[in-house]
Design a protein that fits this description.
The protein is built from eight helices and 13 strands. Helix content is about 45%, strand content about 20%. Helix 1 crosses helix 2, helix 1 packs antiparallel against helix 4 and helix 2 crosses helix 3. By secondary structure, the protein is an alpha/beta fold. Helix 7 links the parallel strand 11 and strand 12. The chain has two domains: about 80 residues, Orthogonal Bundle (Arc Repressor Mutant, subunit A); about 120 residues, Rossmann fold, CATH 3.40.50.
Length: about 220
Amino acid sequence: MERHEVRSRRIPETTIRRLPAYLRALTLIGQDRITSEALGQLSGYSSEQVRKDLAYFGAFGTRGVGYDAQLLAQEIRRILQLDHGVRAVVVGAGRLGTALVRHTGETSGDVVIAGVVDIDPAVIGRQVDHLQVEPLEALESIIRERQIGMGIITVPPQGAQSVCDRLVRAGVRAILNFAPRALVVNNPEVFVQQIDLTLEMQALAYFVGSSERAHRRD
């Protein structure tokens, strides 16, 4: 399996976002080999897209034979740096934050939630899965001592930017923001992913409405 040097050229963000879908498909198939067509069907993309994405990182397959599923999964894990283990801290121990801690503990060994913090004295000290909620004041020391590289924000919108600023100053390199507001990060080495569930549902409402309008026309 030939690897290409990719650090000298920028990989499209959309390609990086598709890699976890390929990895999930590879871990579920239970087969030794898989074609780009099958991998595309299982992950929801075209075979052409699969081949194009993987070509950024090396020659992983053989024409007419396909990919060694186990080796390809290992390579994708390496590309995503999941083989090193990624540690994250959740800021906000409300319903969403605690649900994320429990879900990640049950389903993923790739990203490990190594800390959960909150500002509410009534919540601090409470047990959430394998973790105890710690005070927000300990955020920086938690990140430093536990070598945390990812921050997950589940606080109300008015507090999200200040939490983001603290995460950046403490040295995290990736932030997953569930707070319903856009964050400003001036450090180009820190990547922020925004997940606004309300906006997603509002956008999906269009497709519900368009389907209903089509039925009325019929």
